[in-house]
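Consider this today:
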Amino acid sequence: MEHQELPAAVVNLLLGDGVVTPKAIETTALEMVRKDRLRAEQKADGTVTVRPLPRKARPASMRPFEKLLVERVRHRCGNGVDRVPIGALGPGDGDEFWVWWRGFQRSVREEAMALKLIRPARERQTTWLLRCALFAVAVGLFCAVLPWCPPSAGGFLVIAMQLSVMVVLRWPPFRLTSDPRLTAAGRQAAREWRNDTDAAEHRLPKRQVGAEGPESALPVREPRQIWSSYGRSWHVVDTEPLDPPRWGHTWQFVILSLTVCAVSIAAVMASLYGHISYGGVLAATPVLVGALLWVLWLPARRRVQAVPAEMRFHGVVICRWDYHTHYDDPLTDITHYCCAIEDPASHRAWSFEVHQWRRPMFSGETNPELKDRFRVGDVVDVHCSPRRRKVYRISVVEAVPR
């Protein structure tokens, strides 16, 4: 097969050295538009939207990953909208995207394997076998060379061997989890595509949300812009992170002021009674440092004060995800169920932890009731504190079909 005839998703896999990146969603959607498998429309602001074809007009044969993309488009065309921007097909709605994304990646890899462009990832057993064989060869060479070395060189050889063992333990050879590897035909096709004039449209932007895995696509640590269709119109929502600001709180200013005063008084007393030179400089230094920290604290304080302390509103869930933490005493696993909820009045979203599920470590217990209580698109009534990222009361007003 000529490299120009390869599906866009397979080209994305080749350019990613066996890894499918979220850029494949955009290129596959545009390719399906050119092949009349999706309908497209360009809005006045340049946004390209797509929608599935009517059932009677759908082509009889589509690749598995193309069927999954149609399924994704249909899933995002909820809440009274019949089309979806291509950018909204990517990672934005949290866990619901990543469940679909794993199937999409697997379908693209199977397509590439059928074309003999990649081979399966190396198994863990093979990795450990290769590591053990390499270790046995290294030990054999060391035992064979050591008797022939003079005493002085033997000491250096032993030290070098110990350092090598430390390096190997820190950076073991042969990665334990490897991605599918390109075959010779795959490497040749990848070289051809990298030199092709159309290669730029397949490259992943450096700052694309979700390019580094699920956690990079969720509003956990950093603000995100997430697509929302609430109100039957697609728009981008500025979503605040789950963690509240760490700088700009009143208690920090109090501790800073007390510390500066205590250090300044101690420096003045030491200069008066201890006959220390440059006592004035010692007393002025903490004051200058405190003033500098206060200048840095003040803008952060203004940002904290700009966040409402308490709100009540009807909002919509635009992102849902969970993450896990562990405690050693007692041995406990905690699953944190989180949502990002849009306030329609301001087109701004706040992230909250709405549930916790505690269970003994390694128990394998699940709680589907908590996991499925909220879905992306649910309209909820919220009483919360955005400043503290705390929910006082939340209830579903209008649920999307389960």
